[in-house]
Write a structure and sequence with these properties.
heterodimer; A: 196 residues; alpha/beta; B: 365 residues; Rossmann fold; Rna Polymerase Sigma Factor, Chain: A; two-stranded antiparallel sheet; 11 helices; 12 strands; SAM-dependent_MTases_sf (chain A); Methionine_synth_MetW (chain A); Methionine biosynthesis protein MetW (chain A)
Chain lengths: 196, 365
């Protein structure tokens, strides 16, 4: 069995067997593969990098090379039981609109993202006066695709404003899941299960 | 020009109904096969050919003596592995390598010439389905086609949705654009302007419109290549000379190359077939056949689809593949799509692009 990244493992665990899933930013299709083989899901993917798409297709996955900002509109309403956006929200041109789209094409959504308010980030800014470069945000400010860095509290505020319900949330530090206490300070990344 | 073929052929007992409302009697489909058909017939794949292609997919062409047109992709251990799959490739109707076309003899004993009915891509696929019926193959493991072959694959998926489990469409489109039609019209006018065309009745005359057909091929050939590809291959290099001739010989290598492509083509292709097949491509609009909405063409399809485009293909650019992918998404079909980077333009699907090999192999298995 493939060892999934912890955020993906939580999602794989929560997705109902046999459901229809769209994995946006599916990378090499690790999550899709697990959903297909272990959960009998009808998993579809979208990925912007053609090299990763080619690898997905070569392993027999249905993945479309596309840009979530532009191509999600082509899917009909509620085409999927779950729309999954892992570590991609912060790259969207308009994360608010993307969340709307996720919950249009999916009955539910899973969204994971790196937390920009984790204490190391804060320290980098507060004490060094520099944009943070960490293991989960490893790219310098001038070349990163993360144009909309977000904190857990920012995200909670946005979904409330959008009228989106948070069904569940999980927080992680490294490979370890941590409790919700002071998550905005402690968590390196988070997974939210959303519905509307 | 030749109408003879060394291939096996199936002759239909019943007339073939056509989109025009006409029917075609005694249709013959010439085909080649590679590999062994499994006892349960579950390993059959159909590869559909492009405008000027034929059934010599992975075997030597009887006229040119050149290797099959997709030998790099099809064969034992190749991405389309003939040690596992039974691969069928048939000459489409309207063509000239053994299947019924304008050069074939009509029931009155004379060649059809321009009396041959105008056919469509769907008519070509009707012929292929007839062949599969004749072979007792209910369901293909996959249908694979590039360019016009991709149109046939899409047409099969839309009109005979139970006949293929996998549909692989490479460098193709769901409709011909104005620019596509314009280039084809240029080719057709070149043929018809050749006095040897004789309103299409040239078969018994001993002369055929080779000059016109060569010009048609030259124009089309430019659309199959990219500007960068042409520049890399030829630049402004002169052909076998040090200085310009101040005349109209093929001074430039690119001129010489196109003339060679044009004249070589006339030895293996019938000019009337070129008229009919380009017409069929121009008429192709899969959405129009399905109430104007492309997604309707794929409603309820259980097949898995894969579309591949090339970034340097300006004949059927990526936007055309994306258009099909969006329709498949809207129809809820299982679809993969990737735009591959290759320098060779539309012809990339026939050339050495290793990423394509991996995608084809991964998708069909």
């Amino acid at each position: 069995m493939t060892m999934l990244r912890p955020d993906l493992a939580v999602i794989a665990d929560k997705v109902a067997a046999g459901s229809r899933v769209l994995d946006i930013g599916c990378g090499e299709g690790e999550l899709m593969e697990v959903l297909r083989t272990q959960k009998g899901c009808d998993a579809r993917g979208m990925e912007i990098d053609p090299v990763l798409v080619e690898r997905c297709v070569a392993r027999g996955l249905s993945v479309v090379q596309g840009d979530a900002d532009r191509d999600l509109v082509e899917y009909p309403d509620k085409a999927f039981d779950y729309a999954i956006l892992s570590q991609t929200l912060q790259t969207a041109a308009r994360p608010d609109r993307m969340l709307d789209e996720l919950l249009r094409v999916g009955r539910q959504a899973f969204v994971s993202f790196p937390n920009f308010a984790q204490w190391r980030m804060r320290a980098a800014l507060a004490f060094r006066g520099r944009m943070p470069v960490t293991r989960y945000l490893p790219v310098s400010w001038y070349e990163t695709q993360n144009i909309h860095n977000v904190t857990i509290d920012d995200f909670r505020e946005l979904i409330a404003k959008l009228g989106v319900t948070c069904e569940n949330a999980w927080f992680f530090s490294g490979q370890r899941q941590i409790g919700p206490l002071w998550a905005n300070l402690r968590a390196e990344y988070a997974v939210f299960e959303l519905s509307r | 020009m030749a109408t003879l073929s060394a291939s096996r052929a199936l002759t239909f007992a019943a007339p073939l109904p056509l989109d025009s409302g006409q029917t075609l009697e005694g249709v013959q489909i010439a085909y080649e096969t590679y590999g062994e058909l499994a006892a349960d017939k579950s390993n059959a794949m159909l590869v559909t050919h492009a405008l000027t292609g034929d059934q010599y997919l992975a075997s030597t062409h009887p006229i040119t003596g050149k290797p099959g047109w997709w030998e790099r992709m099809v064969g034992p251990g190749k991405p389309i592995d003939t040690s596992r799959y039974y691969v069928i490739c048939a000459n489409v109707i309207g063509s000239c390598m053994g299947s019924t076309g304008p050069a074939s003899i009509a029931p009155d004993g004379q060649p059809y010439a321009m009396r041959f009915p105008v056919i469509t891509i769907r008519d070509m696929v009707r012929g292929l389905v007839g062949l599969l019926d004749g072979m007792g193959i209910e369901r293909l493991h996959a249908i694979v086609g590039g360019s016009m072959g991709g149109m046939q694959a899409l047409s099969l998926a839309a009109n005979w949705p139970d006949r293929a489990e996998r549909v692989l469409v490479i460098a193709s489109t769901s409709r011909h654009s104005a620019q596509n039609i314009a280039f084809h019209e240029l080719g057709r006018q070149a043929i018809m302007a050749d006095p040897n065309w004789q309103d299409g009745d040239y078969y018994a005359s001993g002369a055929s419109p080779d000059a016109g057909l060569a010009v048609a091929r030259m124009a089309a050939h430019i659309t199959y290549l990219s500007e960068d590809g042409l520049t890399d291959k030829f630049g402004r290099n002169l052909q076998d000379r040090d200085t310009k001739s101040f005349g109209f010989d093929a001074d430039f290598q690119v001129e010489s190359y196109l003339r060679y492509q044009g004249s070589g083509f006339t030895r293996r292709f019938d000019a009337n077939s070129y008229l009919y097949i380009t017409r069929a491509m121009d008429y192709f609009d899969l959405a129009e056949e399905h109430g104007g909405r492309l997604a309707n063409a794929f409603a309820g399809s259980q097949a898995r689809f894969c579309l591949v485009s090339f970034d340097s293909d300006w004949l059927y650019p990526t936007a055309e593949s994306r258009h099909v992918v969006h329709a498949l998404n809207a129809a809820g079909a299982a679809v993969s799509f990737v735009e591959l980077s290759a320098p060779y333009g539309h012809d990339s699907f026939l050339l050495d692009v290793s990423a394509l090999d991996r995608v084809v192999k991964g998708f069909v298995e």
